[in-house]
Amino acid sequence: MITNKWVLFIAIPLIIFAYITLTTYADTMYGPAPIPTVYTVYSISMNLTDSRPTTQTLTNISSNYPLTYREDSLVVNTTPVWIATAGQEFTLYITNASDTTAQQEITLNSTAIANGTGGIKWTIRVPWSLLSPQPVYANWYVIITENIDGINYVSFTFETANESIIQLLTELSNVGGYLMSNNGKPYHLWNYYNGFNPTTQSVSRYYEVGLPGLSVYYAWVGQGENASSWQSQGFQEVLNVFRYVFIEYVNSTIIENAELTYNASIGELTNYGYSIYQRPNLIPYGPIVYPSPVLLLPNGTIINPTCLPNTYYLLETNYVTSFGSSITVYETENNPMGLYMLNGSLLFGGYLQAYDFFNKSMVPITPVQYLLPAYQSQVTKLTSCKIQVFSNEDKPLANANNALSVNGTVIITNNTRNQNAQLQGQYGHEGNETSKKLPYYIVGKSFIGLRVTPQ
User: Fold this and answer.
1) Which carries the bigger pLDDT value, residue 453 or residue 205?
2) Which residue range is the domain that position 281 belongs to?
3) Is it the case that residue 32 has pLDDT exceeding 70?
């Protein structure tokens, strides 16, 4: 039985506890508990290849542009489609290119490493508020960059027409998906491409997503334009004493550096250039893989390579003496091309330009198909030095002590990446040891690299 004394004994401590609690937290205001952000996950998988032309394009140009057809066919038939992408790190960005219906800036991104055959999978976490109850609409930038020594080199940039974020993510997630250009024409991401299959030692057809910012080419060295071709007798000695050097400088920093001996397999396949150029005894080098020097800065700015100081390609042909020293017999510095837009949406450019000794003009050294005359009416040149694709002004710029200013934009120098393009299978980069004999009939001649477009 509980008496009044026990009730009083229990009540007094409770009253004291309540009083202390109220006086301690009297000035504290409690709001509703924060609602956690809910995300929807999209998985975007692609097979990435370089800027080689599609099988349909090769078929279309075979009659009207036979020389380009032969050159490009050599590249696609002797290199795997993943030669430029396997094992490389790529970042996918999706950001609004116009004002959004949500009245906010949106940037989604994901980074992944491609597997040994160029396959890659990005995982994009999208806030549910962008999808429901009404999806956000805008024009969108879709950007893929290759990450080299902490710097983003633009491999693919596309500005879509106005559409919902759901529609965009759905098309990116679908194998065979497309993007809608600003002029209303669909741009098909996925296409069929030929490539050398190391397993079957033959040419196979692959379903891939092409990256205009990655180029593959072969270089050819022969006598000067006013000289006759090397004679067959002694040509083996010529093959063994020359090296081809490719160096790519971006903002005074070397990002690609390859010194190559001749490719014997390509020489035999093409009868040392005759089946391509109808000129005998040319020395083949390569394949050479290089990224366009188009940078995406941490603050969301894409830089036109023509506005970057000390950005150029250095090409050399060196004669190696019997003592092992090199003598440069041909050297040229070549500025990159500017940037271009296809149908007001696809950004491409920055390619190596070299002198064409057949047509006596500068030509781009890339297999990208959008420079062909068939696309001329759809292509416009970009004259500005930069494109602001997203805003990230609060993000600190790494290596700020090494930064340069270009037209008010901060450019970050990066570390050297030396990469010699290695080929799998039958057409691997293979050359013989340097000959110790002097090729008596060629010293002092001019040497040229041939990459020719049709008349």
Assistant:
1) 205
2) 43-87+191-449
3) no
Q: In this model, does residue 443 exceed pLDDT 80?
A: no
Per-residue pLDDT at 39: 87
Is 179 contained in some domain?
no
Considering only the C-alpha atoms of the chain, give the largest distance between any 2 of them, rounded to a whole number of Å: 125
Residues 6+ apart with CB under 8 A from 51: 210, 211, 212, 213, 214, 215, 216, 348, 366, 367, 368, 369
pLDDT in tens, 298-332: 999 999 999 999 999 999 999 998 888 889 988 99
Q: Structure pTM?
A: 0.81
Total number of domains constituting the chain: 1
Residue 344 lies in a domain: yes
In a domain, 123, yes or no: no
Residue 18: the pLDDT is: 52
pLDDT tier for residue 429 given thresholds of 50, 70 and 90: very low
d(CA 242, CA 222): 11
Q: How far apart are CA 232 and CA 257, in angstroms?
A: 31
pLDDT of residue 363: 85
Is 145 within a domain?
Answer: no
Task: Note whether 120 and 90 are within 8 A (CB).
Answer: yes
Contacts of residue 411, Cβ cutoff 8 Å, sequence gap at least 6: 251, 295, 297, 303, 308, 403, 404, 405
Task: Write down how long the chain is.
Answer: 455
